[in-house]
Amino acid sequence: MAFDGFVLKGVTAELKNCLLEGKIQKVYQPNKNEILLGIYCNGISYALCINVSSNFYAAYLTTSKKENPLSPPNFCMFLRKYLIGSKIASIYSLGLERIMIIELNGTDENYMPTTQKLVIELMGKHSNILLLNEKDIILDSLKHFSLENGSNRNIMPKYQYVFPTSCKIDLEDYALLENNLPKDISLSNFFANEFIGVSKQLVRQCISNLAIQDILNLDNYNTVVKYLLALKQNLDNGNAKCIYLADSNDYTLTSCFETQNLQINFFLDDYYTKKESEEQFIIYHNQLLSFIAGKLKKISKKLTGIEEKLKECAHLEEYKLYGELITSHLYEISDTHLETITLHNYYTNSPIHIPLDIALSPADNAKKYFKKYHKLKNTIEIVQEQKIELEKEITYLESIVYEIQAAQSINDLNLIYEEIETSFLINRKQQNNHKKFKKKKLTKEQKMIEPIVTNIDGFKVLIGKNNHQNDELTFKIANKNDIWFHVKNLQGSHVILVTNGKTPAQETLNKCAAVAAYHSKAMQSSNVPIDYTFVKYVKKLNKAKPGMVIYTSQQTINVNPQKETST
To answer: Are 66 and 36 a contacting pair, CB within 8 Å?
Structure first.
């Protein structure tokens, strides 16, 4: 649901009951679109979050901790100068406009009393935070707009504040439209288009609650108006609350005469904190995925170059033969500048055509072929080693891609980030690009392995979430007689069946293999081959990347992926 005029009215009504006469003690700006005001009132500390981003514009009390930049932005410093120490005289919204005004009383540097207004405009991409003096002159704002740049108002310091204009009407004036209802628009769209502060989602929920159709006619119009006016009255009286709509992952307002204190504010805090976390996760996820994809592309390009060199090296014996034959037949060659020559190959007892460099003599051509042969002979050993290393690197990077795709939280991504950082995949410049997500070292608790734990036929089963956790499970937690599972020749989690000295039935092994298939790159496939062996047969080579192992004495079974039941 959009943060409409009804929601703002509910938030404002609750704030009036707890923040009046409260003193502003702290001002923070966690990011470019968000301001946090620390307010102390009646022995309780509150944090008012004001977000003016185009996606999550809202204002509400929050209990969520937010990371702050080391150097406060200019607007944050400006607000600290004017707001810290001020007391809240009043909080109100203008009808159903999405504008909240907080009037503040304070003192200036000469200890003279001052009055200011903090204006919070919550209007999508036009959302803003402004500080006005007692004459409604703009002292400063988070975002600046001007008529010259296409705005309909000047939002700049020293300009008179002008309320935003709208062609919509107030809900109280609903009678103006009663006799002129169009026929080519839905009920929800009509209300959202014609009335101030009414969102389409709110009207749709009203329609659902009233069990009427989303069709605009006079009866439906009056029914919805009556519902909304009653909701508005209940919001003013504190008799309303937010409810979560699981079907649409959204929320709405409803009248309720037994509400908890600050229910709307703290509901919005939970809702928007979750939404912001989800968006941050997606951005972080895509950044890491893009970074690894770039690394894979570079290494694949190198591997292509190696393959080309190996193709050339495949002819080294041919170059040696050309050099030998030219040298052994020099006495027969009378023409010194030829493009090609046919000589007798005494190894196969047949003629052979040898291309020559016309600019060189036959003897120099022979030298050229011998030089090429020795160069490629030295090259082939190097490039073969390089190919093996590059293939290992690709396998490792593909395991990182699997980890990122399987990650479910920002902390999971932070652990992956730390892994690739310690693997020297990220340089200092790239670290700066990711610093807004990973600003400080992970704590010991955050680094602690938290494998997925399930129970299969009475046996405990552990599933690693990333490469470091896979190593922890296999080489530190598991017993040598526990059974290790992994998808064959693909990226996936290490799955450990804790046997405690017992011998599991084949059916149990099949179930564990199905879980291993689910936690692998083949989770969408069927009939997936899974290798399993005792942990004692799983080894880690010297200097191997995290999660990279070799194993022996394995058996293979084909299973369909099956999600575990977490315990």
So the answer is: yes
- Closest by Cα among 189, 186, 173, 184 to 95: 173
Q: Which sign, positive or negative, has the C-alpha torsion 222, 228, 229, 230?
A: positive
| Predicted TM-score of the model (pTM) | 0.74
How far apart CA 510 and CA 491 sit, in angstroms, is 19
Backbone angles phi, psi at 440, to 5 degrees: -145, 165
Q: Which two tokens stand for residue 107?
A: 């003192």
Query: Could you give the CA distance from residue 332 to residue 546 in angstroms, rounded to a whole number?
Result: 63
Q: What DSSP designation does 483 have?
A: E
Q: Which residues, other chains included, contact 338 with Cβ-Cβ below 8 Å and sequence gap of 6+?
A: 356, 358, 362
* 127-to-188, 421, 433 alpha-carbon distances in Å: 24, 38, 27
Report how far residue 452's alpha carbon sits from residue 466's, in angstroms, rounded to the nearest whole number.
11
CA 1 vs. chain centroid, Å, equals: 22
Ordered domains of the chain (ranges, CATH):
5-165 (2.30.310.10), 171-255 (no CATH), 289-448 (no CATH), 450-559 (no CATH)
> Tens of pLDDT along 371-417?
988 888 888 888 888 888 898 899 999 999 999 988 888 888 998 89
Three-state secondary structure call for residue 344: strand
For tokens 């659902």, the residue is 208
Helix (H, G, I), strand (E, B) or coil at 566: strand
Cα–Cα distance for residue pair 515/517, rounded to 1 Å? 5
User: Each residue of 261-285: b (16+ CB within 10 Å) or e?
Assistant: ebbbbbbbbbbbbeebeeeebeebb
Band (449; pLDDT cuts 50, 70, 90): low
- C-alpha distance across the termini of the chain, in Å: 35
Beta carbons of 302 and 392 less than 8 angstroms apart: no
User: What are the b/e assignments for 149-177, b being 16+ CB within 10 Å?
Assistant: eeeebbbeeebebeeeeeeeeebeebeeb
CA distances from 165 to 54, 123, 354, 397 (A): 19, 12, 87, 54
Q: Look over the chain and give the mean of its residue pLDDT values, rounded to a whole number.
A: 90
- C-alpha separations of 541 from 363, 405, 490, 494, 548 in Å: 50, 26, 18, 16, 8
Amino acid at 260: Q
Cα–Cα distance, 303 to 388 (Å, whole number): 10
Quick one: pLDDT at residue 566?
57
